[in-house]
Write a structure and sequence with these properties.
2 domains; 3-stranded antiparallel β-sheet; 1 helix; alpha+beta; about 25% strand; two-stranded antiparallel sheet
Length: about 90
Amino acid sequence: MFAVSVGSVIWTGTGFLMMILLWRMGIKMLRAVSMPPPPPPPAGEMRRVNVRYRCGVCGVELKLTLAPDEDPPPPKHCLEEMTVVAPLFE
């Protein structure tokens, strides 16, 4: 007969549980990727953005959090357009 130790049963059970966990996580990730993005909000409604701008002349920084469109034009300061410092991700 086969001699089965307790350690091999624990390792096999742990491996089986990890396999099921990884399988379920993979299925959830594939479902999340395959879903279409939500429709854009109606025109005139403010959208959440998170962008930082800096004035090239005086160095003033500005953080923009709401805008009417997803890629807003840069604001002006010191009669020059401000440059994007780094887009922030939420």
